[in-house]
Amino acid sequence: MNQWEQLTGEARLVLRCCLLQYGSQWMPETAPRRLLQGRLSGVEVVLACRELLRTGWMKSMHKGWGEVRYAVPERYMGQLLQWMLHPPEFAGELSGCRMVAEASGRVTGQLLHLMAGMYPKGLQLTLKGALHKKAQQLLNERSPFALVDGMDAIHSESAAALDSYSVVFELLVYLGMLRLEERRYAIDEAVLNGWLARSNEERLVILYDWLTAHHRPDGVAAELLASLLQLQSSSAGRWINVSAMLAWLQAHRAAGAVEDSFPDEAWNWLLQLSRLDLGDAAVSDEGTLLFRWSIPVAGLPPAEQARAGEQSEKQIYVQPDMDILVPLSTDHRIRWLLEIWTERVSHDRMSVYRLSAQRFTSAVAHSSPESFLLMLKRTAASGIPEHVQLLLEQWCREWPSSVSPGDTFGQEGRGPSLASVSEPLGPEIPSRKSLEPSALPAEEMLFAGLQQVPLRWTQMDGAYHPSTARKLVEQAVQWETKLALSIAGESRIYIPAKVEDGAPWSVSGWFVSAPTAEDSWPPPSLCSLSPDDWNGMRIVVPPPEVWIHSSSDGRDML
């Protein structure tokens, strides 16, 4: 039994309706009651919300003026969609499509190029604590997003585009890569060493986590699409029919009424994924939206499996003309030293770095040339041409460094070991247990005055005089609970909403209907009853163990 099945049926229904209507966006505390009107009684909604808050499937937030809002944590959306709706497989084989946005494979390398440009001086700050213009210029010029026409407004309805440097700065902060010092942000070498030691697949998953944490698409339907698309990332390398996925979500009324901008937001999200090297976006000959994941992003791959193929030491090619050819899959720890000691000429499937005296002299101030030469000897697939090695040794004699090989950042032994970087970078994801709610409903306000109500009103069906029957109905309305009515020899469950005066008096409410299928629930229909319409009745009160729990602040949701 999974965690979804362990919830009560009422809690699952509330969670399902809230997720499909609001996604992970904040909702007013009255929203669950409104969504379930005519299906669950008010007290059932309260108990369901309390169960969801207590178990962490929903979270709460208090506004300064006393308002409370609820939300489904974003990280559970994909799994909940899987459990609730059982989506089909949308991936398959395809022939004939037009590529619109293709993963370049260069984003993590360009991000490394940016970090090397920041090392060791970091990002300078002004006297007021803002990023210096030179720091902004560096972030703009070496932005990993500039390779794909920059990072424009990620939300289709945004009023203004995000500045490229601010987005890159945000990413560096998310990675924990920056350490605030006096008048500058310096690179945290321990974090950088962990980043370099990761596989490229792990780095891409971290970039995906950043994108979803800070730039998830606007609109509930588009947000649900992003979660559904993530579920299908296990089909990496196969084309996913996004148009069919959109239609499927619309059929399930993923956000009540699907927004007009839904397709545009969906397409915009596919483009952002492509810009981060997470996949390719295309359109079929019939106009179908398609997406193909580069890697699975449902979770980080095992460290040992992810790093397979990246541990070879013979990965670069030193040329007689002082150029160094570097394949795209080269270990980032090797790339880091090349970024520090050489000039990058081009960055592509096969990057080109060039040895130069100017770059060499600037690197000796904070790195050991002996460590750099040792790396070249270990990783040059065809060795180092003799005249190139003689020239490098001459440079070492002319510009000696005060930094010992053991103190050169990026070398083995400096910073954390591979075994210590198996945990993901970025903000720590709290467990569901840590999401203990700050506002649970007070149980003393549920069924207030129960001890003063005759026992038979809640424990057995009975026929009552119309005046007494009205008291039972009014009590059920006050408690926001159901009535069990005997009508024509059949027991019916009724949710009373309002008692109307008259001769005779009447009550308006809803008969509770069972769903015709998992995804099909008859729309509730308000109906009016008078005491002559039933011949037996009882107030439905759940067993005390269902609704008596400890409450943190005594707040009444009723």
UniProtKB/TrEMBL annotation:
Region (Disordered): 405-434
Name the UniProt record assigns to this protein: Helicase XPB/Ssl2 N-terminal domain-containing protein
Native source species: Paenibacillus lacisoli
